[in-house]
């Protein structure tokens, strides 16, 4: 019988620091859809485990990723989630100007300072790759190609003839729980009957199955071929849910914002745009509220000092066990 991770790892600052470096510092991380930065100068930005990132479309049409940090005194290049700049990124602190390919164009006010070479002060670059329109970055220069990482999901979508639609809407939710609590909740259907009564009714007597392929966890309600739950529910290590249906998709990024704190970033995609999302948004809001309540309650109990370890069901919590086994190596 597999035991759970110890409660102290949920919300502990030292655990957060190790996970930030050993998990998120090495994995492919989802940023957004390339259509969100369609034209030269368009950018999308996010904060991921304390790293502030910006993806910008260059004049050559190429998307590039940088740390949202000026090389002068660490000022921000952009603020907000999306925007447009006219041909260059300008630091909001002292006005240093960068070309859209990251080169320092002008160190405003520096003149001809002795020993200063602008070529040494380009933006900090981040490796970026795109799959089916979805933009990912990775901090580790030695990481395997994105195509290898998403290969099991690519095969699954190709087999079922599913496509990922254009982006329609973003939403975010702040949760008072560790990212691991929410990720583990996502990785099992064991709780559906108790926590999600409407979803349980929609699934009926379908056989809920979970299987693992590489870095992908696939969850399926076997026998559901039509209706709102038909499609593919995938989860990519370490923090991304990708749910793809016949005419839409929903991407859920579980973003840790600090020890015991999580932000859920949703990207809804639909072939007919935001106006067609009605029922999907209603269902998402209901499920998120239900998951938030139970995950935050679990976090309070993990932090109370009574519970230390539990046991995992070999039938229902295989993916949770897989997830925790990977994290156990990080905290060994």
Question: How would you characterize the overall build of this protein?
Answer:
- Helices cover 25% and strands 31% of the residues.
- With 332 residues, the protein is α+β, with helices and mostly antiparallel strands.
- The protein has 2 domains: 1-25 and 161-332, Naphthalene 1,2-dioxygenase Alpha Subunit, Chain A, domain 1 (Alpha-Beta Complex); 29-142, Rieske Iron-sulfur Protein (3-layer Sandwich).
- The longest helix has 25 residues, at 278-302.
Describe the structure using short key phrases:
332 residues; 7-stranded antiparallel β-sheet; 2 domains; Naphthalene 1,2-dioxygenase Alpha Subunit, Chain A, domain 1; 25% helix; alpha+beta; Rieske Iron-sulfur Protein
Strand order of the largest sheet: 1-10-9-4-3-2-5
Detail the poorly predicted runs: none
Whole-number mean pLDDT: 93
* Percent helix range: 25-40%
Order of helices and strands: HEEEEEEEEEEHEHHHEEEEEEHH
Helix-and-strand structural type? alpha+beta
CATH architecture of the largest domain: Alpha-Beta Complex
- Give the percentage of residues in beta strands: 25-35%
CATH topology of the largest domain: Naphthalene 1,2-dioxygenase Alpha Subunit, Chain A, domain 1
* Amino-to-carboxy terminus distance: 20 Å
For this structure, what is the CATH homologous superfamily of the largest domain? Naphthalene 1,2-dioxygenase Alpha Subunit, Chain A, domain 1
Report the biggest beta sheet as strand number plus sense, adding barrel if it closes. Answer: 7 strands, antiparallel
Write down the Rg.
Answer: 21 Å
Number of strands: 17
Overall, the morphology is globular
CATH class descriptor of the largest domain: Alpha Beta
Provide the number of structural domains. Answer: 2
